[in-house]
Amino acid sequence: MPFTSIPHSLAWPVGRRKPLTAVRGISGCAFAGLALAGAFTISAHAAGYPDKSIVMVVPYSAGGPTDVVARLLAVPMGQSLGQTVVVENTVGAGGTIAPARVARARPDGYTILIHHMGMATAPALYKKLPYDPLKDFEYIGQVLDVPMTLLSRKEFPASTFPELLDHVKKHQDSVTMAHAGTGAVSQLCSLLFMNQVGVKLTTVPYKGAGPAMNDLMGGQVDLLCDQTTQTVPVIQDGKRAKVFGVTTPRRLASLPAIPTLDEQGLKGFDVKVWHGMYAPKGTPREVVEKLNKALNAALVDDNVKKRIAELSSDLVSPDKATPESLRTHLAAEVDRWGR
């Protein structure tokens, strides 16, 4: 570009070196312009959002509890948004790879995350996380609460909870307990169970609850504590596993004959799983509002309500299915598990 085309205010006499501050000033203006252009582009896209399919990232394997919930919500959310919501399973590292992927994604609403309470426990379990749950996301809303059940393989020697306690205390060195990976709720439930019973079993980590359940039913591992979204069909089938109790203080409507662990002697045993939905930090407010509206529409969908009830889970009330509620709840849970 000819020198004469530079604005007069930025010109500098020929033959004299420009001060570094002037060069930096021009560069700063250029970067500021690029940033404003980027912000304008995202804002412009927000007005017509969505105009293509949306990816809902799940931190665990296909067939696992969180995956089941995601696929139930994807259809009615897609209908509300007028675009397909595609569920993608990004597994590994105890459920931390998926949040890292979403945190780095373009903040335009086309990549979102559904995750359970692992979002709150990860900071206490990992020294270095590639994301900050409280700083790197926009919050769409809470989704549902899920109880858990304690299962064994079908051929396990014990058939009642007292027999189970007796067996694990006498044979703790040879009893295996599966879980969905470090930081997964199934691992936390396992640790709480072992702590209250006073045993140290051999734990077997998997890349998700689906593979863990498959190996339990196949007889490769002895025990598994997992969410009702995955375990209720197996329990009702009655042919592939044994059930010893429910992890919440009250019995489940879909499994009224199954006693709680609390009433069977593990006083105060209470583990349930909450789920939330997130978008990358910087996602426009209008886009988050549209996603929140679609989430709320899915939570009152007749098929979703029917299936969630069959899986002994509880969809949250409208006052919890909000960005503000999820933000507050996550912060409290991060503090709780950190301590």
TrEMBL record:
Superkingdom field: Bacteria
One Pfam short name: TctC
The protein's matches in Gene3D superfamilies, at most eight in alphabetical order, are given as: Bordetella uptake gene, domain 1 (3.40.190.150), Periplasmic binding protein-like II (3.40.190.10)
Report the sequence similarity comment from the record.
Belongs to the UPF0065 (bug) family.
Report the protein name in the record.
Answer: Tripartite tricarboxylate transporter substrate binding protein BugD
Q: What is the lineage of its organism?
A: Bacteria, Pseudomonadati, Pseudomonadota, Betaproteobacteria, Burkholderiales
